[in-house]
Amino acid sequence: MAGFCLCAALAHADAPPRAETRPQTLSAHGDARVDPYAWLRDDSRSRPEVLAHLQAENRYAETLLAGQQPLRDKLLAEMQARGAGGEASLPYTENGWEYRERYPDGAQQPVYERRPVAGGEWRMVLDAAERAKGKRYYRLGGWQLSPDGRYLAVAEDVRGDGTQRLALRDLASGEWLPVAEGGAGTDMVWSADGRALWYVAADPDPYRPSRVYRHALDGKKDALVFEEKDEGYTVSLSASASRRYALIAVAGSDSSEAWLLDAQDPAAPAKRFAARRPGREYYLDHYRGAFYLRANPDPAGFGLYRSAAPGGEWRTLIAPTANREVESFLLLKRHLIVKERGDGLSRVRAIAWRGGASRTLALPDPSYRVWFDRNPDPDSGRLRYRYSSLTTPTSTWEWNLSNGKTRALWQPKLAGYRAADYRSERLWIRARDGERVPVSLVYRRDRLAKGGNPLLLYGYGAYGMSMDAAFSAPRVSLLDRGFVFAIAHVRGGGELGRRWHEAGRLANKQNSFNDFVDAARELARLGYARSDQLYAMGGSAGGLLIGAALNQAPGLFRGAVAQVPFVDALSSMQDPSLPLTVGEYGEWGNPADADAYRRLRGYSPVDNVGAGPYPHLLVTAGLHDRQVPYWEPAKWVARLRERQWPGQQLALITEMDAGHRGQSGRVSRLAANAREYVFLLTLSGWREP
């Protein structure tokens, strides 16, 4: 039945577009490779022949997937109903005000409101829908209120390319004041008196956050206070827990350093805390007269250290071990809160400053995600944290640090969802080299049939980022129709600490692909899926994972969804004019080096498309994407079209007004979820009862 449905869909589709071939020979280290689709690159995003090809692909995809529209509409309605509109987030208190975020019924964009702690009506601080009017794309990147609560600073992406424009609003008069029209980042910090705002700005070409400016409310020209000229490093900005400093973090692939801006003296120059050195990273905070650092001077990984002053000695507070390292920390008046990672999971400990007594937060699920919520009052004896698992909707909790008790402060109301109907598990699979790889999975209890389910395997595996198991309300629609969902925590991520990252980058990158393929095969062997009903999904660097896995095991998966996939890795890493290339040599290697070139040449998906047959594929791109330019997925699909077999669904959808993060509105994002899930459901042969 599934095969019949696919053939019927293709019979009504237009002929797939074929990109013109204009061979270009690229030579390096004695190797010549031919790129027939290099002409698809257009940095201006305006060349008519390129736009015409992308639009032809979009029309073909629309026709190809048209028969799925009724089910897409049904899933979208489910997803919208499940996430109750109009529900407000849990308020938090800061500087005498309560703040909350709220989505009106059916709204694409949120509103932000506040009221005095003493009580009263909620007042509008920011209406994102109003700011989005007349724009094809709008996403609020961040916002910060001045200490006196009068001025609101916002960072807004109005082009979809990730660059921000900054604006200030005088909440007393309602007047909007422009700050930076473009090329800014999302990080902003106010001075203690609220008369100056520091913000990060980016180089326009290539896009790299590299400078910090000070904007004064007196109307003077913005002053450059810091600039990082090494293209391998990027700049970010945050406020210290003490609010005494604005902290500039300068980070590369394997080293970092911090600079201090005095919040009480905004005109003072930036002061370096400790000079960078290869192989050492440190991330800084300040509280109660001392500096605290998450750092890795120890080969075992990240620990926690304290220093009295810039340039001073680092005293060890928590040393890393082979099985545990510090992931993040929070400084409160009576307790040090530390999030540590061990055995593939995070745990949270509270350590009393006086006496050193330690208490660990109990968490109920086999795999989960836990992180700190806003805790603006360090004098509080309570910790707010967020918790989510594959079966537990993301909720806000409070931990009483005196007696260890927890209570739920806010839990979303999801229409028709009962957590007891679903089961999550955590497995360890053995990869081909003997390494144990963690896998998190979830399914609906009454839909699991041993060896009979379709299974969607998700992966990322790069930059030391941990893909912890978290809840997705849209995913419930997939589980309710019999899918098992699994995350392979492959090497290259950070799930098992620094060593896990090292084991999946540079010369070890092949481990990421092996882990993903081996996890899929093992899950089928264990009965969580039919061997002919395996599906793959990944985005960005996870798209590279998917593309390489399909090249190396093309018959393993029946279908895949690749979201803004990084698939032309060799060409991109050879081009230092692209925004992320130089800064990512430490992750993928610099192909100017012959060994790095050979490795990238061996797994870059575009360069290794085989004779096939490949699985059914839905590929997405964003025209204004700076992180993974649209031409990477476009060139990959063009290569795959050369080998497209009769009956294969191969669709490329380019969002013409969006970038790396896809559509900006909440309903639009749900529609994208519905499209991807219905693509997979149709491949699995699902028919609505």
Counting DSSP H or I runs of 4 or more residues, the number of helices is 13
Strand residue content? 35-45%
State the low-pLDDT regions, or none: 1-12
The helicity comes to: 10-25%
Please list the strands of the largest sheet in the order they lie side by side.
30-31-33-32-34-35-36-37
The coarse silhouette is: globular
Keywords: Hydrolase, Protease, Serine protease
Domain Peptidase S9 prolyl oligopeptidase catalytic: 471-682
Family: Belongs to the peptidase S9A family.
InterPro entries: AB_hydrolase_fold, Pept_S9_AS, Pept_S9A_N, Peptidase_S9_cat, Peptidase_S9A, Serine_Peptidase_S9A
In a few lines, what is going on in this structure?
With 689 residues, this protein is α+β, with helices and mostly antiparallel strands.
Can you walk through the features of this model?
The structure is a single chain. The chain contains 13 helices and 37 strands. It has 689 residues and is an alpha+beta fold. Helices cover 19% and strands 35% of the residues. The strands form eight sheets. An eight-stranded mixed sheet has the order 30-31-33-32-34-35-36-37, with helices on both faces. Strands 7-8-9-10-11-12-13 form a seven-stranded antiparallel sheet, with no helix packed on it. The chain is globular and about 70 Å long.
